């Protein structure tokens, strides 16, 4: 049952001690309610839609995947869930992935308790915690890295082009499969093929590529 006025928070971290510490930090606050937690990406993808939190605090590195992937999947189903990435490492690659997945914030585990509380409240209020300077640097690198390579699209089949556009819309493999009436495994094979042809390793790079092309057309 949703308590009026409280920020509903879900925690995802594979380290129980870290998870318990964050849980205790948040749950003593009058305006915050911890509605669920998980230690794996698979578990989180089941529990987050069921608990419908306002904010999901997600560990970036997990034994069965990444908090970034969880963020992308959750937000593709319900973009009202704000995601706050929690990580031990600060680097442009992780920041880039977080931006492309639609995360609202990105904080280090070394953060002080009151700063984490402020971060949760800011994200819940719809504010972005992504540093504008770092974000600009990542997006600039994107432009530099993808410039003058649009001819790679010529190597894609019509179906791969269609799937690339849907990746750009933020759809998951399952959602793309439903849209095109194909099995999820078939879509996964298409995605692997088109990423290989584009010289990319992750679908987040493909999503950014589509976004840049659309921006240039405007």
From TrEMBL:
It comes from the Bacteria. Signal peptide: none annotated. SUPFAM superfamilies: C-terminal effector domain of the bipartite response regulators (SSF46894), CheY-like (SSF52172). The keyword Transcription applies. The modification 4-aspartylphosphate is found at residue 59. Residues 8-124 form the Response regulatory domain. Gene3D superfamilies: 3.40.50.2300. The keyword Cell wall biogenesis/degradation does not apply. Residues 149-214 form the HTH luxR-type domain. InterPro entries: CheY-like_superfamily, NreC/VraR/RcsB-like_REC, Sig_transdc_resp-reg_C-effctor, Sig_transdc_resp-reg_receiver, Tscrpt_reg_LuxR_C, WalR-like. Keywords: DNA-binding, Phosphoprotein, Transcription, Transcription regulation. PROSITE patterns: HTH_LUXR_1, HTH_LUXR_2, RESPONSE_REGULATORY. This is Response regulator transcription factor. It comes from Streptomyces roseicoloratus. The lineage of its organism: Bacteria, Bacillati, Actinomycetota, Actinomycetes, Kitasatosporales.
């Amino acid at each position: 049952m949703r308590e009026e006025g409280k920020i509903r928070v879900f925690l995802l971290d594979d380290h129980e001690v870290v998870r318990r510490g964050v849980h205790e930090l948040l749950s003593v606050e009058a305006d915050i309610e911890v509605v669920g937690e998980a230690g794996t990406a698979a578990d989180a993808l089941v529990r987050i839609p069921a608990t419908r939190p306002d904010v999901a605090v997600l560990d970036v590195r997990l034994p069965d995947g990444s908090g970034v992937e969880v963020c992308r999947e959750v937000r593709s189903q319900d973009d009202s869930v704000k995601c706050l990435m929690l990580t031990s490492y600060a680097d442009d690659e992780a920041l880039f992935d977080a931006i492309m997945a639609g995360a609202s914030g990105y904080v280090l585990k070394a953060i002080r308790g009151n700063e984490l509380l402020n971060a949760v409240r800011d994200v819940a209020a719809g504010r972005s915690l992504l540093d504008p300077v770092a974000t600009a640097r990542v997006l600039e690198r994107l432009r530099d890295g993808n410039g003058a390579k649009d001819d790679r699209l010529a190597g894609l089949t019509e179906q791969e082009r269609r799937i690339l556009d849907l990746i750009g819309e933020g759809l998951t493999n399952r959602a793309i499969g439903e849209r095109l009436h194909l099995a999820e495994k078939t879509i996964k094979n298409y995605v692997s093929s088109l990423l290989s042809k584009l010289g990319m390793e992750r679908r987040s790079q493909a999503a950014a590529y589509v976004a840049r092309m659309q921006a240039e057309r405007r």
